[in-house]
Amino acid sequence: MLYKKSKQRDRILELLKTTGSHPSADWLYEKLKAEFPRLSMGTIYRNLSILEKQGLVKKIDFGSTYDRFEANITPHYHFICEVCGAIKDLELPVEYQLEKKVEEETHMTVHKHRIEFFGICNACMAKKGS
Amino acid sequence: MLYKKSKQRDRILELLKTTGSHPSADWLYEKLKAEFPRLSMGTIYRNLSILEKQGLVKKIDFGSTYDRFEANITPHYHFICEVCGAIKDLELPVEYQLEKKVEEETHMTVHKHRIEFFGICNACMAKKGS
DNA sequence: TTTATATTAGTAATTGTTCCGAATATTGTT
DNA sequence: AACAATATTCGGAACAATTACTAATATAAA
Q1: Å from A47 (CA) to C19 (C1')?
Q2: pLDDT, averaged across chain B
Q3: A8, A20, A37, A91: least surrounded by Cβ within 10 Å?
Q4: Is A78 a residue whose pLDDT tops 90?
Q5: Domain B1-71 adopts which CATH fold?
Q6: Does at least one atom of strand D sit less than 7 Å from the CB of A40?
Q7: Taking the domains of chain A in order of start, what are their residue ranges?
Q8: E strands of A1-130, at which residues?
Q9: Which residues of A are less than 8 Å from B91 in CB distance?
Q10: Which residue approaches D18 most closely, CA to C1'?
């Protein structure tokens, strides 16, 4: 099945590329419904899923009851604030040798790995102090 | 609020301790309903939540649409089979220096981290080959 | 054995996501 | 430009996992 272009999908991807906030489907819906008054959540989810299949978007399915999404598809790790739920991309180099170690230990095939760091972000730390 | 003992809760913890399968709430329910014919899912979820508060159980909330649970509370990483969904505990040493590196990079406070490795388990690899 | 309250079963409600069908938009062809 | 083929949309219904509620029951302590 081929893909036809869609204004909604283009804007979803554009929004994801220009925000660092790793938004939820609902956030995208709220942002775009002014632009597309008859927008529906089905459209958001379907397009996120298509963009993911195309390798342009990644789903972040941890640290929350709902999924979040990002268009930064270069390998990187995440920091999650335990207070406000913010997700930050980290610059920490990706440690591929860990995958080798797991393969040596288990003799299983490892395709990828993920690291999430949990703590308190600077903004929440500042609020806490006050 | 203090905790009174509950046969249901005791058995949930015991089951979790003696299985390596990182089961779902539903799996626990199916296993225990012979023993407690009037068991309800609410009881499973409530007790898992209490056991988690007590630090006896950890929720595994990634890689699936439903939560899974474990009673192995010593720090360790996970391997998730992309084919059958099995979760395996890894022996890989926990790399606490990564948390320091993140703190140096971001000047945020890191409390913990998690690593998940994704790949194909031995059982699924064998099936695939045949 | 009385009292206080944590726990349970059963069910209803909630949440996030997926699925569906009829209408619309996009693309390629004549 | 008109047409056919089909991907996409909207809107709402359906769904699955979890949480919330209430009356009845179990536990612990006095």
Answers
A1: 15
A2: 96
A3: A37
A4: yes
A5: Arc Repressor Mutant, subunit A (1.10.10)
A6: yes
A7: 1-72, 74-130
A8: 58-60, 68-70, 78-81, 87-89, 109-120
A9: 105
A10: B45
Query: Which residues neighbour B53 within 8 Å (Cβ) at sequence distance 6 or greater?
Result: none
Residue B114: the pLDDT is 97
pLDDT at residue A71 above 90? Answer: yes
Q: Is the Cβ atom of A129 within 7 Å of strand D at any atom?
A: no
Residue A84 carries which side chain, given as an amino acid letter? Answer: C
Q: How many helices (H) and strands (E) does chain A have?
A: 5, 5
B112 in reach of chain A (CB within 8 A): yes
Q: Tens digits of per-residue pLDDT, B49-108? A: 999 999 999 999 987 999 999 999 999 999 999 999 999 999 999 999 999 999 999 999
Q: How far is A35 from chain B (nearest CA, A)?
A: 31
Residue count of chain A: 130
Note whether B118 contacts A98, CB cutoff 8 Å.
no
Name the percent of chain B lying above pLDDT 70: 98
Residue closest to sugar C1' of C10 by CA: B40
CATH classification code of A1-72 = 1.10.10.10
The predicted model gives A38-44 an average pLDDT of 98
CA gap A67, A80 in Å, rounded: 14
| CATH code matching the domain that covers A74-130, chosen among 3.10.50.30, 3.20.20.70, 3.30.1490.190, 3.40.630.10 | 3.30.1490.190
Q: Do A125 and B109 touch (CB under 8 A)?
A: yes
Distance between CA atoms of A114 and B79, rounded to whole angstroms? 10
